[in-house]
Amino acid sequence: MNILILISSYRKMGNTDLVAAIIGEDLQLAAKANNEPLVLNTLYLGHMGLEPCRGCRVCFDRGEEFCPIKDEFTEIKTAMKSADCIILAGPVYVDDVNGIMKNWIDRLAHVCHRPEFAGKSAYLLVTVGSSRTGHALRTMDTALRLWGFHIIGKAGLKTGAKTDREHIESMHGEKLSKVAAIIFTDLKKERFKNPSFISLMMFKIQQIGWSRAPQSTIDYQFWKEKGWLNGRQKFFIQPEGNFIKIGLARFVGTVVAKFLI
Ligand SMILES: Cc1cc2nc3c(=O)[nH]c(=O)nc-3n(C[C@H](O)[C@H](O)[C@H](O)COP(=O)(O)O)c2cc1C
User: Fold this and answer.
1) Chunked in runs of 10, what are the mean pLDDT values of the chain (261 residues)?
2) What is the CA(29)–ligand 1 centre distance, in A?
3) Rounded to two decimals, what is the model's pTM?
4) In whole angstroms, how far apart are CA 50 and each of 70, 71, 99, 218?
5) Which atom of ligand 1 is nearest to the CA of 14?
6) Closest Cα partner for 118 from 32, 28, 228, 35?
7) Gap between the Cα atoms of 60 and 57, Å rounded
8) What is the CA radius of gyration of the chain?
9) Phi, psi (rounded to 5 degrees) for 72
């Protein structure tokens, strides 16, 4: 099991970092108890010199390898590709993800066109002073689902402005142990093979959209080479699970696509 923790707070030992570290420790305990080899790495997106997207569209039109920015983006993407699961964690800034996370999402915008993370899982986590977390979690959820990730779950934790580990454990310790158990079980049982209704529906919308793209584009070629433009292809991977759910999600996706595309 290879898990990558991606932290978008600039503050090392800040609320998000502490929360993610506790989940990481619980995951290590679960892995040990189950004799499961676990590789756990943490990357701090704010400390990797990730430059802002320049909007040149080269990644969309020619391929991400032609991006004019040369920074640690490739290292981040390589780490994401080697992981079975990412735990994406960040603070809420003004009701949404912070700029560091949004910049990371923008730099990966080409993956909305060419979902490279099919078969991988993600858990979404935000900390917040005192207000809502739904908007920030939705921003993360939309991007990662489009990229092909199976979303294991999400959590928003109220932590105040700056707190210490003891306080976090007393407020959220029980919840964080549950989050670690959910992540561990989901990965062990390979639940990514049983995609959610929303993910199945979004795949159908993407499938319809990219089937209408000009055949000369690299996006069309990517979808074609993967076999995902075949109308009988129900998801990025062969989905397990209830055929009624799969059929209904595809039907709803077809209807939604009529209005969106
Ligand atoms: C620029 C900025 C904007 C923030 N916006 C909000 C907000 O809209 N609502 C809220 O409840 N807390 C807000 N906070 C508080 C953080 O979400 C909260 O303290 C978070 O746990 C910080 O995580 P960190 O220690 O990992 O950086 C904001 C903090 C900063 C620095």
Assistant:
1) 98 98 98 98 97 98 97 97 98 98 98 97 98 98 96 97 96 98 98 96 97 97 98 96 95 97 89
2) 30
3) 0.97
4) 9, 6, 11, 25
5) 25
6) 228
7) 5
8) 19
9) -85, 15
Residue 226 burial class via C-beta count within 10 angstroms: exposed 0-12, middle 13-18, buried 19 and up: middle
Please indicate whether residue 136, judged by its CB atom, sits closer than 6 Å to ligand 1. no
DSSP 3-state of 34: coil
User: In the chain, what are the domains?
Assistant: 2-191 (3.40.50.360), 197-260 (no CATH)
Render the burial of 111-149: b for 16+ CB within 10 Å, e for the rest. Answer: bbbbbbbbebbbbbbbbbeeeebeebbebbbebbbbbbb
Q: What is the Å distance from ligand 1's center to 95 Cα?
A: 9
Q: What is the pLDDT of residue 147?
A: 97
Please report where in the chains the tokens 């979902």 appear, as a residue: 115
Q: Are 74 and 118 in contact (CB under 8 A)?
A: no
Pocket flag, ligand 1, residue 13 (CB < 6 Å): no
pLDDT number for residue 113: 97
Distance in angstroms (rounded) separating the CA atoms of residues 183 and 175: 12
